[in-house]
Amino acid sequence: QIGTFLVLGFSVTALFILSVLWGDQWKTVRLSFQITAPYLHIGAITLMVLLSWPVALHAIRADKKVVQVIIVGPYLAILLFLFLIPLGMYSPCIREMGTLGPKPALIGHRGAPMLAPENTEMSFQKTIEHGGDGLETDVTISYDGVPFLMHDSTLRRTTNIKEVYPNVSAQNAALFSWDTLQELNAGTWFLKDKPFSYMGSLSRAEQEQAMNQSIYTLSAFLRLAESQNKLVIFDLYRPPEKHPYRNSWINRTLEVILNESGIRPHLVLWLENDMRSFVQSVAPGFQQTVGSKAPVEDLLMDNIVKLNLAYTEMSSEDIRKYAEANITTNLYVVNEPWLFSLAWCSGAHSVTTDAVHTLKNLSQPLFLM
């Protein structure tokens, strides 16, 4: 009894810890069943058909009715369960012919980070080269007011700051001047650290190009997007305390977008919530985007036209509800073909992805029935 309680206690504790630490992973598993459940169901039925002869043979050979019931009873119970499963089964990829929506647009997550150093000119060029429809990035502002692209709060992961300025390598990226940032190499880490286990192969010329990448400015990024007619979406990071642009970060970013880049406003998916009313007043052409679900009425009141959601929040019902109000849905970060297929079947209008070069090749969703 003590052993049983110990095992039970350990199992419950382990499941609790996994549910806390692996919350997103469990959500992904649940999403995967929307794709695989029909095939698992068919496979289970096939297995039960194969087992029917051995079960029947053992039941017939049994001398006692009780033994026959013990053999046949569980088998029939499982068959009944499999018969009833379709009543509660849902998969958006089971649909009538002609009802599948258009393929979601592909937005390169920090460019094409499997093919080039993230948030660099080469990375965004690779996204464009492979047919991406939009570009996603992260924007912060240098100490002297130059908006530039950087995801991390420090420069240690994606530049050679530890080699050039080791004593200040842990300092917030926004506390450096643009002259200092320009000195850094933003590409050698990519070939050394290999951030993805399934990265695309690079030619010798591409490796040389990657090694010579530098930090990219927001202005140059926007000019590239404008020249290629690509949508842009970015997370805008507020500078830290005592930064000269701490309280004018949005104004400075707008100045670059509206006065220095030349990008057409409708290509900008504006995600930042702070000062949204002000942004709408000075840049009414931006596509106002929000990062969380909300009642349709509230979204329309704020002129929201797009939702930018984590793929774990994927819901075909919600996507359809918002679409009826002309609010489209973008899901991030979607890299695997099966997950992209589920987003496609669910009606997502676009996805942010690290794998534009892979997903571009899908002509229809996997597992479509």
UniProtKB/TrEMBL annotation:
In Gene Ontology terms, what is a biological process of this protein?
lipid metabolic process
Which Gene3D superfamilies does this chain map to?
Answer: Phosphatidylinositol (PI) phosphodiesterase
Where is this protein found?
Membrane
Q: Which UniProt keywords apply?
A: Glycoprotein, Hydrolase, Membrane, Transmembrane, Transmembrane helix
Q: Which GO terms describe its cellular component?
A: membrane
Would the keyword Protein biosynthesis turn up in this protein's UniProt record?
no
Which PROSITE patterns does the record match to this protein?
GP_PDE
What Pfam families has UniProt attached to this entry? Answer: GDPD (PF03009)
Provide the GP-PDE domain boundaries. 104-363
What are the transmembrane regions? 39-57, 69-90
The record's section on PANTHER family has: GLYCEROPHOSPHODIESTER PHOSPHODIESTERASE DOMAIN-CONTAINING PROTEIN 4 (PTHR23344:SF13), GLYCEROPHOSPHORYL DIESTER PHOSPHODIESTERASE (PTHR23344)
The UniProt family comment states: Belongs to the glycerophosphoryl diester phosphodiesterase family.
Q: What is this protein called?
A: GDPD5 protein
Q: Gene encoding this chain?
A: Gdpd5_0
